Amino acid sequence: MFARRAATFAPRFTRFASSSAAPRAATRFGVAAGSLAVAGGVAAAPIQAAAPPAAPVKTAAGTKGGIERTFIAIKPDGVQRGLVAEVINRFERKGYKLVGIKAIVPSKELAEEHYGDLKARPFYKGLVNYMTSGRAPVIAMVWEGPDVIRQGRRIIGATNPLDAEPGSIRGDYTISVGRNAIHGSDSFESATIEIGLWFKPTEVFDWKFTHEEWIISAN
Ligand SMILES: Nc1ncnc2c1ncn2[C@@H]1O[C@H](COP(=O)(O)OP(=O)(O)OP(=O)(O)O)[C@@H](O)[C@H]1O
């Protein structure tokens, strides 16, 4: 997922990332401090000005390394199999927050864009057809919380259900890679793009758990 997104993501990503000035500033300060030490004849270690802390990277996927958001989709086979409540339950029980959800039969364009990096694969056409058939909708969701992108992939399990650990969704409920029930973003960059692809900003909600301190407080 990430590889197929990387090329298109890079230009968009720089709009969000405001930390690129930090390394340049650090280099500039480092050189200046070193020169001063030599000029004054002082046998001291060059003074390095502390680089200003990098601004956190914030996108539609939340704050990288902080409270993140991920795109999770229950595919038509997962919906047909009655796994919607099970999937939601697993993310909710873990402590993650549902900030967006809708049933949607994706257009061919949306499915092709979503799976764009798999274009050359023999199963690509069948994959797009199955996602867009309308024989069941896709349940598209955005989940929020610490490390939710990586943890979401663990909850889902390996792409090929025969490699997925028991206890994961794919490990427990599926046996075919072509009908593996669910999708989850595989990186912050993918999550940024996929949330933007499937959801309008107004369809994703900022809300607070009233019991948040019982889920994410650190002592
Ligand atoms: N060999 C295959 N045969 C049939 N379908 C496949 C095969 N490999 C992958 N797929 C389908 O393409 C989807 C996307 O594959 P990808 O390699 O991006 O894995 P993934 O990121 O784990 O899956 P997803 O994007 O659905 O979460 C898989 O989930 C699966 O439905």
From TrEMBL:
Co-factor(s)? Mg(2+)
- InterPro entries, A to Z: NDK-like_dom (IPR034907), NDK-like_dom_sf (IPR036850), Nucleoside_diP_kinase (IPR001564)
Q: Which Enzyme Commission number(s) are listed? A: 2.7.4.6
Record-annotated Nucleoside diphosphate kinase-like domain positions:
67-206
| GO molecular function terms listed in the Swiss-Prot or TrEMBL record | nucleoside diphosphate kinase activity
Which CDD domains does the UniProt entry name for this protein? NDPk_I (cd04413)
Task: Please give the HAMAP family that the UniProt record associates with this protein.
Answer: NDP_kinase (MF_00451)
Principal EC category = transferase
Which positions does UniProt annotate for ATP binding?
Answer: K75, F123, R153, T159, R170, N180
Query: Which branch of life, at top level?
Result: Eukaryota
The entry sums up its family as follows:
Belongs to the NDK family.
**The name this protein goes by in its record:** Nucleoside diphosphate kinase
Sorted keywords for this record are: Kinase, Transferase
